[in-house]
Amino acid sequence: MAEIRIENVRKEFAGFVAVQGSTLTIADGTFFVMLGPSGCGKTTTLRMIAGLELPTSGRILLDGEDVTMRRAAERDIAFVFQMYALYPHMDVRGNIAFPLRCQGVPRAEIRRRVEETARLLRIGDLLDRPVSGLSGGDRQRVALGRAIVRQPKAFLMDEPLGALDSEFRHLMCGELRDLHDRLGATTVYVTHDQLEAMSMADRIAVMNHGVIEQHGPPQEIYDRPATMYVADFLGSPPMNFLSFRGAVRSGDRRVVIDAAAVPVPELHEDRAEGLLALGVRPEHVRFDDAADLRGAVVGAEYMGTTQIVTVTTAAGALKARIPANRPVRTGETVGLSFRAAGLAVFDAGSGRALRSELYDQVRHG
Amino acid sequence: MSGATPITSKAQAWGRRIAGAAVIAYALVTLVPILWIVQTGFKTPSDAIAYPPKIVAEPSLEGYVNLFTTRSRQAPEYIAALPPADGWVDRLVRSRNMVVAGPSKFGERFVNSLVIGFGSTFLAVFLGTLAAYGFSRFKVPLKDDLLFFILSTRMMPPIAVAIPIFLMYRALGLTDTHLGMILLYTAVNVSLAVWLLKGFIDEIPREYEEAALIDGYSRLAAFRKVVLPQAATGIAATAIFCLIFAWNEYAFAVLLTSGEAQTLPPFIPFIIGEGGQDWPAVAAGTTLFLVPIVVFTVILRKHLLRGITFGAVRR
Q1: Residues A150 and A235 in one domain
Q2: pLDDT tens digit string along B160-179?
Q3: Model ipTM?
Q4: Which site among B215, B218, B302, B313 would you substitute to test the A interface, given the most A Cβ atoms closer than 10 Å to its Cβ?
């Protein structure tokens, strides 16, 4: 049970910066997800917390104690690897007992704790099987068992579900979250899958090119993305960007796109004439014949209760999630109106969101 | 195979028969010299040199008796005057008008071969495993150059350095000692061991050790409990190669050993010298010379087969 804090942690590999000066605090008991594409530095950050890599500069604190230079063995943290890393020369029992044997726990106690862990993970009947014959999901459970059997301060998981097929992954997501709630230990979970992140996390950090772009609760990151990158990474389909040129001033409540006025949350920031982008979630788009902003329908994907309609406008293509019962013809010209309260305006050059009423409660990451 | 039509399975059956016949034919060709040696060891000296050769001969242990004993020729009257022979060895020797004078050097030489062969194999594999692990896992300065240097020691035939080694060994007093031969064979084998084992250890994912490090083990404990068991296949294969080299090595053994530490390869040719051309004794010595390698290989066979398919297993 621990709070994890990383301060200005930077990691360089020969001529390449993997993580550039991240700072964040993970509160005790949080299910914290680091989300980002491969190569964004999320796994490197995790490995530094574990002690498998040493940071080039910066500090790592566990419960306020500086562990930056401690060896992995001395940090009392468990790590679940993507490819499980189960020891192939041991059976399930041997794998789960392995961390305890190192601590000199008495035999009877090891036996009791291994069996208790196996029961918790529902693999009690597999204890004496070799690990080579197990299914992916069972291997994952054994890897989890090896992590939880020693009751560590925190769990670090590096894409632990990455090797499972999608249906089973969904099931394991639920199990992992249940397990976390039952054990209450701090968990840091790395993934590139936004659905996994959204469904499990208490808090998410979105990383890109070694930088944490934004961190906060999933809902906040989804509703109030700090950068265009974050807005684009979350949601399927992701946020639409309508680019336009113009100047905005603090207090403006509308922007002008393609000669059409679009109401937005009140802006708190001035911007001289420049390239901007209006961020619109697909579910905030409505077809409205009275609207000034027009577009032509290119195609539609039927999703059951909703459909995703692609529309081209003068400001760029846009995907709208609308009820499935609205008939749509390809080539049809439609008017587009947006739910004003959910709109974000970005500086297209830097990618950062302009301060507005939408972001009132949010600290910029 | 269940979906195959009868025609295909018949063709497959024939294919298997032909392949089987080819394997048996090849095995016969390669095994004939060995069978001939084993059989000659159990022939009498006269049967061994009979012309035309005897395919089937009365089995005799005379070759083995001659291999392990030294004998002296005596007049028949002297032998007749001796107390009754005790045991079949004495009777056999006396029937050739000889008496046993004492044990031969074969036993000692055999032990020398075992000590030097297994000793140098153990050392080469031990050092090779540690070095290979280091090269595989750590940042070693000049790693590529060092690896190339290690490999380059095998680019010339070892005998090319025979004279410097001979002179060094004489100066150091290592000539004709077990230690000297073990060091020499270790030096030759360790480069092979490093390269072979590095390949095997590279194949073991680092995550296993990292998992052990996180589980609280030291680097050394992780190496011993996680890496070594998984490298067992590679270690077994490497050990066989090293042992075969050390066991069969002839040139250095002739040059550097004469008595104390002489191994079997230089000794076996001398078996023939005592009392005419004793082919059965030579064949018996050769047969026994083959046994340890065969036994060692059979024991490690399981690992060897796994070693061949090592890279093919999905992890």
Answers
A1: no
A2: 889 999 999 999 999 999 99
A3: 0.81
A4: B215
